[in-house]
């Protein structure tokens, strides 16, 4: 079953096909393939952008979206939810914090399961951001990306992508917020190129992409940790350190004045909003991949 739960269990060839198909959807030149499908969405939280993107994506590929306001694992065993979904829809898109529970759903599912974010990964978002960068520079290979933030789901999906393309991912975070060495070594063992840094200038100098995530909850309180994150804020001056053509991307929602200054976010080098416009086309391609249509 071609589930889409992370970027380690898809091949580079499959990702290439997803990116190529994303370009067709983005250009408005694609037509749905195959018969009409029914796709369930199970989203924890508001998931504003993700709902919008998947609703559009499902519409693009010729599907009907069945939005299910259920909380995975809350009222029945996940295997029972999986059994009902398998009989009722052609694929399931799920946003749920507990990564293991999403994998449990997939393990029991007779239809493809696509992760629309867990605490450990955000593969669809990163594919969409990567698609945006590929459109700009022609290829992903050779990309140097500095991830500004804690060890988050988005950071991990970028690390995973670095095992599929020649991307170097450097995490810039205060001491104590770097991803564990065991995780980073696992990525390296799979061919990924990952590093960590606590030094703003060193980590951002020459980067092609500064990718920001929001602060962890602990950094929102006044005091030491907040100050440590504040010191790594991406400002216009930090953007000046990047390589020629360097860009800023933010996963959103953005907290201006925290991880990024208002002027840096508004800078023409911030391609965040252009990237978000690529969510629907790339998600359409991911769904087609999961449905075996690429
Ligand atoms: N565009 C998005 O889906 N953003 C998600 C925010 C990611 C953040 N690390 C979170 O887990 O809340």
Protein described:
Belongs to the aspartate/ornithine carbamoyltransferase superfamily. By secondary structure, the chain is of the alpha/beta class. The protein folds into 2 domains: 12-122 and 277-290, 3-Layer(aba) Sandwich (Rossmann fold), CATH 3.40.50.1370; 125-275, Aspartate/ornithine carbamoyltransferase (Rossmann fold, 3-Layer(aba) Sandwich). Helix content is 41%, strand content 15%. It contains 13 helices and 9 strands. The strands form 2 sheets. The protein has a 5-stranded parallel beta sheet with strand order 7-6-5-8-9. Helix 3 (78-88) crosses helix 4 (99-108). The longest helix has 16 residues, at 12-27.
How many domains make up the 3D coordinates?
Answer: 2
| CATH class membership of the largest domain | Alpha Beta
| Mean pLDDT across residues | 97
Could you give the order of strands across the largest sheet?
A: 7-6-5-8-9
Highlighted features:
single chain; 294 residues; alpha/beta; Rossmann fold; five-stranded parallel sheet; four-stranded parallel sheet; 13 helices; binds citrulline
């Amino acid at each position: 079953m071609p589930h889409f739960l992370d970027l380690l269990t898809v091949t580079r060839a499959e990702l290439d096909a997803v990116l190529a198909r994303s370009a067709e959807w983005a250009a408005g030149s694609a037509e749905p393939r195959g018969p009409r499908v029914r796709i369930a969405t199970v989203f924890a939280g508001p998931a504003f952008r993700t709902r919008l993107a998947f609703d559009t994506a499902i519409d693009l590929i010729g599907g009907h979206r069945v939005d299910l306001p259920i909380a995975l694992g809350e009222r029945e065993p996940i295997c029972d939810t999986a059994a009902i979904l398998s009989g009722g829809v052609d694929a399931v898109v799920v946003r749920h914090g507990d990564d293991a529970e999403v994998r449990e759903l997939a393990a029991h599912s007779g239809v493809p399961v696509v992760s629309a974010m867990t605490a450990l990964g955000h593969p669809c978002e990163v594919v969409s951001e990567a698609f945006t960068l590929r459109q700009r520079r022609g290829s992903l290979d050779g990309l140097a990306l500095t991830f500004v933030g804690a060890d988050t789901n988005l950071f991990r999906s970028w690390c995973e992508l670095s095992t599929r393309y020649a991307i170097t991912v450097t995490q810039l975070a205060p001491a104590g917020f770097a991803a564990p060495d065991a995780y980073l070594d696992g990525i390296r063992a799979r061919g990924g190129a990952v590093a960590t840094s606590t030094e703003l200038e060193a980590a951002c100098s020459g980067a092609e992409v500064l990718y920001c995530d929001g602060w962890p909850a602990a950094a929102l309180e006044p005091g030491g940790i907040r100050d440590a994150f504040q010191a790594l804020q991406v400002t216009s001056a930090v953007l000046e350190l990047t390589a020629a053509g360097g860009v800023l991307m933010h996963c959103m929602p953005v907290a201006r004045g925290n991880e990024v200054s208002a002027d840096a976010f508004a800078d023409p080098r911030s391609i965040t909003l252009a990237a978000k416009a690529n969510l629907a086309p790339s998600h359409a391609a991911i769904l087609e991949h999961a449905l075996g249509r690429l």
